[in-house]
Write a structure and sequence with these properties.
With about 150 residues, this protein is an all-alpha fold. The protein has 5 helices and no strands.
């Protein structure tokens, strides 16, 4: 029995896929470490520290990860995950992830400084007359543009 430097029996699989298997094993180790970190803190304790939007994000990422891992499990068992209900579940979760992203984007967009925006627009639209160009920094009365 021939063993590679990382302790994997190379007689049980083609040598061409050794690098892929080593990378997969490393990725599994990373997932395991992350799960241990997440499991070290109680869920209720973690949720208390998050606002509702962040709670929704965490729940969606958790359920998406779990379903993705099940997808991989099905594939390792020779079952086509594309023909399994897990595919529809992942699509449903992705839909909710997009909705939460839209909400988060709207929340960020609402922080617009309306005063600064109106000054920017007013200054960008105002064009001084040639005779008033050097004497005044404000538009003449009655010369204001109507904004649509």
């Amino acid at each position: 029995m021939e063993m590679s430097e990382d302790g994997i029996n190379t007689e049980e699989y083609p040598t061409e896929i050794h690098d892929y298997l080593a990378a997969f094993e490393k990725s599994l180790g990373s997932v395991d470490e992350m799960l241990k970190t997440m499991m070290s803190v109680s869920r209720s304790e973690l949720l208390q520290k998050l606002d509702p939007l962040e709670q929704a994000k965490m729940d969606l990422v958790s359920v998406y990860t779990l379903n993705s891992m099940f997808w991989v499990y099905l594939a390792t068992q020779g079952i086509n995950p594309k023909e399994h209900p897990v595919k529809q579940e992942l699509e449903r979760i992705r839909t909710y992830m997009n909705k939460v992203k839209e909400i988060a984007d709207k929340k960020k967009a609402s922080k617009l400084d309306k005063g600064a925006a109106s000054r920017f627009v007013r200054n960008a639209l105002w064009e001084p007359n040639a005779e008033n160009e050097h004497t005044s920094k404000t538009p003449a009365k009655g010369k204001k543009r109507k904004m649509d």
